[in-house]
Amino acid sequence: MTVAPRDAPKPPSLVGSVLPPVLFVLVAGIVGPIFLVLGLVADVPETSWLLPTGVGITLLDLVIGLLLGRGRYRSAQRLHRLRTRGRAARGRVLSFEPTGVRVNDQPMMIIKLVVEGGDITPFEAQARTVVPDVHIPLLHVGELPILIDPETDEWEIDWEAARPVPPGTLRPPADDRPAAARLAELDDLLRRDLVSREEYDAARARILDGI
């Protein structure tokens, strides 16, 4: 699997990385700014607590937003370094499992793989990452495109270079286990909500048809 050349990405902006989480936290914690404004405009002894409370909550919101923004900026810097000086490699998938968390309606998964390719010394690694639905078949194929910095061994799955598996080309490996074992595993997957009822019924029918 090769990585197609692409234009050099622009370096991340500190303001662009920090401002969105700060604004989000301020909006989510709007009670702080509201107390602050009310404390400034109200001239009643009973509301004297509004101003210090509003200042405290607003400052806390700002600190949280700045910390989130700093983490976002560092992640963007790391991504920029990999995309400007990283080398193409491949990740041989050893295992993967869903976490049950979805981000922007895409599943987050834990992927264990071996990073290898070229003169890179193969090493095992693990990623907890959001996998676009269109690329989930690649986990079954067992190979993912990787960007790696040979100097620091920093790496990432290069989803932009990943090509979706054409429909109908993915074939599950043969399963020689007894039907009872496969049905028990299928029941367990259903109990853990790892397959839908439709997927369960279809898989169960295939197993029973093969008996």
Summarize the structure in short.
The chain is of the alpha+beta class and 211 residues long. It has helices at 14-28, 31-41, 50-85, 136-141, 179-191, 197-209, and strands at 87-103, 106-117, 120-130, 143-148, 155-157.
Provide an overview of this structure:
- With 211 residues, the chain is α+β, with helices and mostly antiparallel strands.
- It folds into three domains: 14-83; 86-161, Beta Barrel (OB fold (Dihydrolipoamide Acetyltransferase, E2P)), CATH 2.40.50; 179-209.
- Helices cover 45% and strands 23% of the residues.
- The protein is built from six helices and five strands.
- The chain has helices at 14-28, 31-41, 50-85, 136-141, 179-191, 197-209, and strands at 87-103, 106-117, 120-130, 143-148, 155-157.
- It has a five-stranded antiparallel β-sheet with strand order 3-2-1-4-5.
- A hairpin with a 2-residue loop joins strand 2 (106-117) and strand 3 (120-130).
- It is flat.
- The chain starts with 13 loop residues before the first helix and ends with a helix.
